[in-house]
Amino acid sequence: MKIFLRKDIERVGLAGEIIKVGDGYARNYLIPRGLAVEITKENEQFYVKRVKKVEYRKEAIATQTSMLAEKIKTINITLKKKAHDDGKLYGAVNAAEIVDLLANKGIVIAKNQVKFDKSIKTKGTFIITIKLTSRLQPKLSLNVVPE
Asked: pTM for the whole thing?
């Protein structure tokens, strides 16, 4: 079945694309949740025109996102946390702290875009991934020091 995606769906497609998926997946999951619209002979021309508009917008957004990714790659941030004498932190580093540190540097992201390989519970230098898009995931360096 041909569908027009209204929202990005990981491993399926991006919003504004016309793709083919299984009939059951489209009818039972995508269309009832408002994630997609079925393409019929009557509405095909309308959605083909929308695809062209969406592609233009995506190019502009992709340029801005790639510039943001380059900026994130160059950033090293330092976080001061209370720690025991042996270097263990009283509490693990969380995504909200990373978002606040990046906001101080002029980069606005959401908490759900911060990805840790494993929880950070000791002092040291760590690599953190920021998921901007499914394909664009820059990494930054976090240095955790005791207060």
From this structure: 0.64
The amino acid present at 137, given as its one-letter code, is Q
Tell me what pLDDT residue 22 has: 95
The whole-angstrom separation of Cα 107 and Cα 33 is: 32
Q: Enumerate residues 6+ apart whose C-beta is below 8 A from 4.
A: 16, 17, 18, 36, 37, 39, 47, 50, 51
The type of residue at 128 is I
Task: For residue 32, give its domain range.
Answer: 2-64
Indicate whether 83 belongs to any domain.
yes
For residues 36 and 69, what is the distance between their CA atoms, to the nearest angstrom? 29
Cβ neighbours around 73 below 10 Å, total: 12
Residue 77: is its pLDDT beyond 90?
Answer: yes
Q: Where are the beta strands (DSSP E) in the chain?
A: 2-5, 18-20, 36-38, 76-81, 114-115, 124-130, 139-146
Distances (CA, A) of 30 to 4, 6, 23, 138: 10, 10, 10, 30
Q: What is the pLDDT of residue 50?
A: 83
